[in-house]
């Protein structure tokens, strides 16, 4: 398969996913108003889940159809790193002050759960085949699923507590037909994201062979960049709507779901525990995501006001540096 044809397919996947991401953002915001949901919760749970469908489809397709576990793990962990790096763009778009000055403290809870889940994944990657397993499934899989559900419940309860204390005025609800129309748009966009995400692993695997790059590098950098396009599109749209917390919640919530995808991929991988059969380079990516999440937590606590060269906060500078170092190390390891 020629390089030009593979590149064209890759570009088409990117366009489809990006376009559907914008529709998801608009419909998600409309549904939040229609059902009386908080924007932060919509970003964390509803939008984050749907915009992570490419990672889910790509991961299951990579392990079940392509037989490329390194693509699946690299895609999930790489998507976490890309999402955290995209927080830099969110920070840059805040003209008056760094985003950490205005962001809700609720995001600390999402980021904290992300640290716990990432730490568990990193530990399982380092342990390898010595990690506990049951019926060919790693012990980390049910733990990741349980942590994700606990995170959703905890963040929802915390946000509801804040909403009750705010006593905001009730808004006029749209008609049932308008709500059904938004749900149809939302569902159609989700199907487009799912279809394009299922197509992506085969294209990425062909690119890795044509370019002579490792599947770990392609999955972590190339494929992760494209499958996070919905998160990017939704985040930019949320910022245009003035919903900063929805934008941040979408990115951090997507990371929680991406780590849960590893558990689903493990169930679809029939050769044994997934994390025991992949390159050790992924432990470096998990450690990078841990470090970047830690930087975000520091930013949310310290809420820095100054900007480096009047452009972005020092937290964003650290996020960019961590992302670049991880990509360079993966490239060198794959070479």
What is the rounded Rg? 19 Å
Q: Distance between termini?
A: 22 Å
Percent helix range? over 70%
Structural class, judged by helices and strands? mainly alpha
Kindly state the number of beta strands. Answer: 2
Please list the strands of the largest sheet in the order they lie side by side. Answer: 1-2
* Beta-strand residue fraction: under 5%
- Low-confidence parts lasting 5 or more residues at pLDDT below 50? 167-171
* Total count of helical runs of at least 4 residues: 12
Give the overall average pLDDT.
84
Task: Summarize the SSE layout with pairings.
Blueprint: H1 3-35, H2 39-51, H3 53-66, H4 69-93, H5 107-127, E1 133-134, E2 137-138, H6 140-166, H7 176-211, H8 215-227, H9 229-240, H10 244-268, H11 281-302, H12 314-334
Antiparallel strand pairs: 1-2
Helix pairs in contact: 1-2, 1-7, 1-9, 2-6, 2-10, 3-4, 3-7, 3-10, 4-8, 4-9, 4-10, 4-11, 4-12, 5-6, 5-10, 5-11, 6-10, 7-8, 8-12, 9-10, 11-12
Could you explain how this protein is built, in words?
- The protein is an all-alpha fold and 335 residues long.
- 78% of the residues lie in helices and 1% in strands.
- It contains twelve helices and two strands, in the order H-H-H-H-H-E-E-H-H-H-H-H-H-H.
- It has helices at 3-35, 39-51, 53-66, 69-93, 107-127, 140-166, 176-211, 215-227, 229-240, 244-268, 281-302, 314-334, and strands spanning 133-134, 137-138.
- A two-stranded antiparallel sheet has the order 1-2.
- Helix 4 (69-93) packs across helix 8 (215-227) and helix 5 (107-127) packs antiparallel against helix 11.
- The longest helix has 36 residues, at 176-211.
- The chain is globular and about 55 Å long.
- Mean pLDDT is 84; it is low at 167-171.
